[in-house]
Each structure stands twice: as C-alpha cells, then as structure tokens.
Amino acid sequence: AQTVTQSQPEMSVQEAETVTLSCTYDTSENNYYLFWYKQPPSRQMILVIRQEAYKQQNATENRFSVNFQKAAKSFSLKISDSQLGDTAMYFCAFTPPTASKLTFGTGTRLQVTL
Amino acid sequence: KAGVTQTPRYLIKTRGQQVTLSCSPISGHRSVSWYQQTPGQGLQFLFEYFSETQRNKGNFPGRFSGRQFSNSRSEMNVSTLELGDSALYLCASSSPGTSRYNEQFFGPGTRLTVL
C-alpha cells in the first residue's frame, strides 16, 4: 500500500516571498504519478502540478515548481512570489499509472500574509 | 468546457436513511472517481468507475456503492447512514487513453450532514 506524508500541518509566508511545502511517500512501484492539489477555503480542489516518476526533470508551472527526489521518495512544492490567492490547503497525492486512485497526504494549510 | 458538476451541493439526512449523490464529469471524460473528505480521516478514495464498470475500490463498507451510466455520469449511494458518514464527498473525472489520464479534475463536492 502507498502512503503519503505531509509533515507540516500549517505554514505561513509573506506576500512575494518563497515557500516550500514538503511531502514524502512510500511505494514499492517503480512508475507512478505525483501531484500537488490546492483547495482554497470553501472552494474546489485544483490541480497545481504533476510529476511523472520516470521523468528526471522537475515539473514547473509558472510560479510553482517541484523538487522530485525519487530515491529519497520526496516531492516538495516550491511557490515563488507568493500571492494572497495562494492561501489554501495544499495536498500532495500519489497514483499508480493505470488507475485514477489518488492517495492523499493530510495536507498543509498555507497562509499568505501582507 | 464545463467543469465537473455535483448535485446536490448540500444535504442533511438522519441516521438510518439512504442518500444518492450525483456527478457529471467533464465532457469526454470517461473515468469518474469518488472521494470522502473528513477532518479526522482526510481524503479517502471510495471507488472509480470507467465505462460503467467499477475498476477500483477503496476500503469502505458495502453501504457505500456507486454506478456509472452510459453517458459517464455517476451516482454514489450510501445506505443506512451513520453519523460518521458526515463528510464532503468529492467527485473527480479524468480521461483514460490520453497522456494526461492520471490528472483528475474535481467537482465542488456535496456536503452531507447526518443527524
């Protein structure tokens, strides 16, 4: 069974600063997908970024980038130039390649302040 | 394209009743997955349907069931409701057979309260 661990329940960052959210996972599979999802308060879950395990290159989407360390089973999310609209719960998630079956971490609540 | 829609958005039921939640995926998406979100247990996978067949199932009791119709719309049913079934139920759709198959797009959820 796969597990996903997010060890930071809450984090705070000032607007325009950079913040890194941590995620580790455990799996015996060699190929899989990792995701970061964002859930703003009372709003729906949005996909932030996606990483395929067989790709060495770290994924990047505008201000969002990941540091994927396959051997260490680590998948952190870096948010650059933080904006107030980044305030949300962030979930790290894992899925095997042939199923739409996400295993989520417990989430990190990020607060962006002025 | 319209996003994933879920109805109803809010629901209040009493213990012992049953409930049916509905999910319409993004047009062209044939896979629908359901998740339960609670403060205590977090986000947990319930089941996935693809082409009207249940393809994966999470660790939930048999009171939780689902189905998918030929137009890919899906319903989930919870029978004999318990207080612990109070949760946000999320539906997500994805498009198997494409390079972005594993990307799931979520609906706004149905907030179920069991009294």
Summarize the topology.
The complex is a heterodimer of chains A (114) and B (115).
Chain A: E1 3-5, E2 10-14, E3 19-21, E4 24-26, E5 33-39, E6 46-52, E7 60-61, E8 64-69, E9 74-79, E10 88-95, E11 103-104, E12 108-113
Parallel strand pairs in A: 2-12
Antiparallel strand pairs in A: 1-4, 3-9, 5-6, 5-10, 7-8, 8-9, 10-11, 10-12
Chain B: E1 5-7, E2 10-13, E3 19-24, E4 31-38, E5 42-50, E6 53-57, E7 64-68, E8 74-78, E9 87-94, E10 105-106, E11 110-114
Parallel strand pairs in B: 2-11
Antiparallel strand pairs in B: 1-3, 3-8, 4-5, 4-9, 5-6, 7-8, 9-10, 9-11
Written account of the structure:
The complex is a heterodimer of chains A (114) and B (115). Chain A has no helices and twelve strands. In chain A, the strands form three sheets. In chain A, strands 2, 5, 6, 10, 11 and 12 form a six-stranded mixed beta sheet that branches. A four-stranded antiparallel beta sheet of chain A has the order 3-9-8-7, with no helix packed on it. In chain A, strands 1-4 form a two-stranded antiparallel sheet. Chain B contains no helices and eleven strands. In chain B, strands 2, 4, 5, 6, 9, 10 and 11 form a seven-stranded mixed beta sheet that branches. Classes of the chains: A mainly beta (114), B mainly beta (115).
